[in-house]
Structure formats: structure tokens, C-alpha cells
């Protein structure tokens, strides 16, 4: 059974850092396209960061230079390192697996990040 | 960047059919995927590759895609279908893009 379990969210002050984790089971993160998607309160879905099977990464313009996606193949876990956090980064963050032709077929339960002083 | 446009809301009576549109430039040339999100829950894939259903999704859910519009249709709508619905395009060769979402209200 495929599962994604997230952890690491919380309340953080502006300018602070936080690392989200997404532990996967039932498939191998090292050969899959993985993505972080966020949803601000009352808003829609926004992709944040992706990591491809070959290890390449890409960030949305809104987080470029501040967020870093990575994975630990030995732990089968995906990470999102978030630095220089802003109030507008407040959201529920989801990790998801992206199938070869685009659908996000499995999602984590979401991790709440609140940036506030 | 590519833009997907959805109506903010759609209302439907129980037992009737609901259609949710997703507009984009020449979207018919892309693969479109649809998600259902209920309050406090993660999104769930309900249609992929324009019209395929994942295991466990009722046959009442169907999709189509042509020209500049993709459509999610829910037949014989039930109270439990009330949710936000998002369309999405993108794959390993292009950025993931989501529509703004449509709130389906069952009257």
C-alpha cells in the first residue's frame, strides 16, 4: 500500500526556518517525481517545489532562493527545507507523488505551517 | 505561464448532473487531471488523463477534454459529492499548473 506521512510543521516567526518531512512507503521516492504543494487558508492549490527521478529540482518563483527540496533514498523520505519564512508562506503543505504523465496520484495528509510573530 | 480558469462555484440539486469546466489555451492538446477536496482533507484524484477513473472512484464521475475546455461531469449528484474540485495539467516536461478551484454545492 502506498502511503505518504508528513511531519515537521508548526508555528514559526517571520525570517525563521523549518524542515518538513514526508516519509513514503509502498514505492521508491528515488525513482519518482515528487512534489510539494501548498494551500493557503481559504485559497487554492499551488505547487512549490519538485524533485525529478534524476535528482533535478525546481522551485516556484514565490519560494526561489528560500526553499530547498531534497530526498534521502536510504530513508525513503522527501524533505522541504524552508528558510527566510514569510507570513505569506502560511499554508497547509502537502507532499505528493507525480505519475509519469502528470497526475498527482498519492498525497500526504498535509502539514500546517504558520508564520506569525 | 499557463493559466487554467475554473468557475468559482457550481450548484446542483441532488440526483442531477453537475458539470465543472476548466479553460485553457489549447487545453485539448494536454492531459488534464481532476481532484476532489473535502474540508480539512487532502485532495483526491478523481479523473486522470482527461477521462480515466482511479480505482474506487464511482462511474458517476467522468471527464472530457477538447479545444480550449476540459470538463468534469458528475452524474446523479449526491450530498457526499459536495467539495472543492481542481483541474491540473503538467508532467515531467512542464510545470504543474492548477486551476483556481470550483466549489460544488449540493442544494
Describe the structure.
The complex is a heterodimer of chains A (117) and B (107). Chain A has no helices and eleven strands. Chain A has strands at 3-7, 10-12, 18-25, 33-39, 45-51, 57-59, 67-72, 77-82, 91-98, 104-107, 111-115. In chain A, strands 2, 4, 5, 6, 9, 10 and 11 form a seven-stranded mixed sheet that branches. In chain A, strands 1-3-8-7 form a four-stranded antiparallel sheet, with no helix packed on it. In chain A, a hairpin with a 5-residue loop joins strand 9 (91-98) and strand 10. Chain A is globular. Chain A starts with a strand and ends with a strand. The model of chain A has no long low-confidence stretch (mean pLDDT 95). With 107 residues, chain B is mainly beta. Helices cover 0% and strands 47% of the residues of chain B. Chain B has strands at 9-12, 18-23, 33-37, 44-47, 61-66, 69-74, 83-91, 94-98, 102-106. In chain B, strands 1, 3, 4, 7, 8 and 9 form a six-stranded mixed sheet that branches. A three-stranded antiparallel sheet of chain B has the order 2-6-5, with no helix packed on it.
Which stretches of chain B are low in confidence, meaning pLDDT under 50 for 5 or more residues running? Answer: none
Enumerate how many helices of chain B there are, as a single number: 0
Give the CA-based shape of chain A.
Answer: globular
Based on the structure, what is the oligomeric state of the protein chains?
Answer: heterodimer
Q: Secondary-structure element sequence of chain B?
A: EEEEEEEEE
Helix content of chain A: under 10%
Total strand segments of chain A? 11
Give the integer mean of the pLDDT values of chain B.
Answer: 95
Query: Which structural class do you get from the secondary structure elements of chain B?
Result: mainly beta
Task: Report the structural category of chain A.
Answer: mainly beta
Name the chain pair with the biggest interface and residue counts per chain: A-B, 23 and 23 residues
Sheet with the most strands, sense and barrel status of chain A: 7 strands, mixed
The coarse silhouette of chain B is: globular
What's the helix count of chain A? 0
Give the end-to-end Cα distance of chain A, rounded to a whole number of Å. Answer: 40 Å
Q: How confident is the prediction overall: mean pLDDT of chain A? A: 95
Kindly provide the radius of gyration of chain A, computed on alpha-carbon positions and rounded to a whole number of angstroms: 13 Å
Q: In this structure, how is the largest beta sheet of chain B organized?
A: 6 strands, mixed
